[in-house]
Protein 1
Amino acid sequence: MPKTNDQEKIEQDRRLKGNMSKIRHKFLVISGKGGVGKTSVAVNLANALSLTDKKIGILDVDIHGPNIAKMLGIEHAKLSVSADGIEPVEVAANLKAVSISLVLENPDEPVIWRGPLKMVTIKQFLSDVHWGELDYLIVDSPPGTGDEPLSICQLIPDLSGAVIVTTPQEIAVLDARKSLVFVRRLNVPVVGIIENMSGFICPHCHTEVNIFKRGGGEELARACEVPFLGRIPIEPEFVELADRGTPFVAFEDEMESSKAFLKIVRRVEEFTSTR
Amino acid sequence: MPKTNDQEKIEQDRRLKGNMSKIRHKFLVISGKGGVGKTSVAVNLANALSLTDKKIGILDVDIHGPNIAKMLGIEHAKLSVSADGIEPVEVAANLKAVSISLVLENPDEPVIWRGPLKMVTIKQFLSDVHWGELDYLIVDSPPGTGDEPLSICQLIPDLSGAVIVTTPQEIAVLDARKSLVFVRRLNVPVVGIIENMSGFICPHCHTEVNIFKRGGGEELARACEVPFLGRIPIEPEFVELADRGTPFVAFEDEMESSKAFLKIVRRVEEFTSTR
């Protein structure tokens, strides 16, 4: 006898619950404005945590601009299906990744979907991806407070926390503040705010130039009484590394941004140790 | 007798058609990735065109991160309602603006809406805003190929064209290419591609540093055989002006980015003169 829609929904909810129960800490990386470096924070956080012998999954729910595969250097890989469900792509020993871009035949193909279809896809990623046991799942959301982050907050009721990424200028901070109100309203704990692209050191004259200003993220954290996780400067090498699919946390000794980022990773770990 | 839903829909479609028929050229400004300067292109394009004695409207359909009001310095204004419909905010003699942020009571309030409600709002903006006669309507879309740009392309069947904004690095160009496929699939003419944040001139040593690389937008235009509208360099003053709500096209003689931008405006005007 074919299953009814209700039966299917109940079974999917059961699979989702079982799947999520095997993952210890689940984090959402969110921003109000686009282009503030949310995906690069998510990718580098996942990478840095995987180097500490923890088992990590990274899930890209940015359906229209899925960039984690490119930043991880796995853009030519594809998700497969086994008896256990959808198999994530193994990026490294302790790091697995899932993104809509790992399903698409053609990387130029835009996903022209309205909200309800996105919700269905995100739910399927949560219920049917065979992550196995994980220490951390990092979810990279598109900017804003729409269908994708809303689906994550509603479908993962025990979300450990949200990391909010902003750049320092007012326009970005204005939108980051909205993200903060959003996660609070959905009862998601706030890990803290990261101020990205904060100051640029000219590689020629070594003078610091605040292209996107400086301090806006830190001020927001103080005003809203949430932790300030740290500031990451802009480095042109960083853009090059992201395009090449190389995580910049691998260059700890050479790059200012890498050193700053690793301090932020320690703070995220501390956050989980208090839970 | 109360109207049925069908009657209401027919009447709204009629109002939308009437409203749009009074607007000569309608442009969508779109990007794949967020944070590439789409809103600032839209705001400065509207501003520059309004200085040529043309009547301009700017419509912000970025429901979750509406920034045009802030960039135009009208963030404390509110939309009003008259017998003719929703009255846009008058920014200057020839420039009117509409944004969801001009309706919200509290600027920190996130709009936590799923796709279908966004579509309803966008449709209402198109059918019920009393723009009057306009030479140009510039629509600023959120990044990606989701509900908002899809609604615009479907609801304005005679859209004059789409302006695609990208930054030069591969990650952004990858997403811009998706936007290009998106607008082509929806039969919207492509005005061309703008390469924003292309090169940075250090204000201290005057050396050029390609923070986000250089040339990616131009290469994409060549590969896809669409016009390349021009490249705009990064200037820290620009971020300051955007935060203060001052359009940078007002500084033609002083700023490299302003000079570059005005050339792009001329190209958009040329595009309309061929139609």
Protein 2
Amino acid sequence: MFSRMKVMVGGTFDPLHAGHRKLLGRSFELAGPGGCVVIGLTTDEFAGKKTHPVRPFGERKRDLERFIGERKFAASYRIEPLGDRYGPAPDEDFDALVVSEETLPVGMDINRIRQERGRKKVDIHQISCVLADDGRWISSTRIYRGEIDREGRVVR
Amino acid sequence: MFSRMKVMVGGTFDPLHAGHRKLLGRSFELAGPGGCVVIGLTTDEFAGKKTHPVRPFGERKRDLERFIGERKFAASYRIEPLGDRYGPAPDEDFDALVVSEETLPVGMDINRIRQERGRKKVDIHQISCVLADDGRWISSTRIYRGEIDREGRVVR
């Protein structure tokens, strides 16, 4: 088997909900034993453009590390500050990018830029969004609004 | 880890070149030990719409089985005749679809149809095309034209 891939994934991860856990779990699975996951975590400045408040970088990073530690994934990882939509993905040497339905266009952009710069395109793994109990996407915005909790349960 | 996914992939696989081997290898890897890969192999009638001749279904199936047997993948598989672009993918219960850069639009169509029919969308894994030594895609058409061999070496 091949495995041992270097996989990139990015996000704000606040709060870390069931959709994020699927995104991260799949990233580690794709990387495989001996592989590596590079997690781009949005900086406070970049995340500040969202419509809802976002907790500070350090707190979000700590929650990510706690989640990853609990799962005992076989691949190694590192968390890097992500200051814009693309981060180092247009130029760095890696194998696969994991995206959500929302961020697939960013992944396609990254491959277009890579090609323009004469770099190898990467594989793109798009996970389908995790649905809340009401059949709509789980998103941080919906959790922040108090519509659902981070497991996708409707808050009454 | 999760793994144990049911993965679908389709193609004509004639001749079975380095790009196909990447597509199939990744499908088995994603399915994981205990998972299953459903390979849609185009029927002679459907494949007959291609611009180049295609060997009969039975010969293409035998080559697929030989390749899979040699690799000793951990997931099980079955090969099904694929009589149109979508096959059973809009209606069948499965987890992930593996596509190439060329067939990503088919994957997006399948998810759109699934959603219209009230079915869960599937994850889509797009592998980047394998490049021949001349930096262009490996494709059956180019192999048939005698430009490259199935490993992507330029034929002189």
